[in-house]
Amino acid sequence: MKHTLSAAALIAGLITTTPANAGQIDLRITGFTNDTGTARILLFKGEDGYHGKIDAERIDAVSIHGGKANWQAKDVPEGSYSIIAHHDTDANDDLDRPFFSLPLEPYGYSNGAWVSAGIPDWEDVAFKVGAAPVQQVIHIRMNAFAALGQMALIGVPSLLVIIGGLALFRSRQVSNT
Question: What three-state secondary structure class fits 150?
Fold first, then answer.
């Protein structure tokens, strides 16, 4: 009977304690152009997580205040991680990509990594979590190709209207002479 109680106490102790090598991540996200929607954070463990071979370790959304957002993850097991954050402007819990998979909401990566096309290499976004708290800052921004795409959606029709108006104006001038 004595062995049963000590085994039960050991199991209860293991369930209620946090991992011995758990750490903390403090994230500050900047670059928001407004405070609407939420800042959405995806924490990935290891390179397989970053490349989508396994699910995200944690997914959270936090409010934006004054163009900035703060997020903290406690009891993070020791290891290598990466973070992708984005401005979920419509609060639909998704990074909107309607055209050619180009994100239409600003986003950023851990370590401030950035590339104009595709995603940064694992080595550029990876950071280690250990016993000491880890500080990360992500400055979100629009992908240049996506921004051009958005401008084209608005700009091309506008440009056609302007060109059409100029052509109509010019044709009236020619007919009046």
Answer: helix
- Sorted by sequence, the CB contacts under 8 Å of residue 33 that are 6+ apart come out as 67, 87, 106
> What's the whole-model pTM score?
0.70
Residues 6+ apart with CB under 8 A from 117: 143, 145
For 69, phi and psi rounded to 5 degrees?
-140, 150
Angstrom distance (rounded) from CA 32 to CA 67 = 5
Rounded to whole angstroms, how far apart are CA atoms 168 and 148? 28
Amino acid at 81: Y
* Per-residue pLDDT tens over the stretch 87-124: 998 787 777 665 556 677 889 999 999 887 778 999 99
Q: What is the pLDDT of residue 5?
A: 47
Which of 3.30.230.10, 2.60.40.10, 2.60.120.10, 3.40.50.12280 is the CATH number of 21-142? 2.60.40.10
How far are the Cα atoms of 17, 107, 134 from residue 52, in angstroms, in the given order?
30, 17, 23
Q: Which amino acid is at 12?
A: A
Q: What is the mean pLDDT of residues 161-175?
A: 69
Q: What is the mean pLDDT of residues 133-153?
A: 75
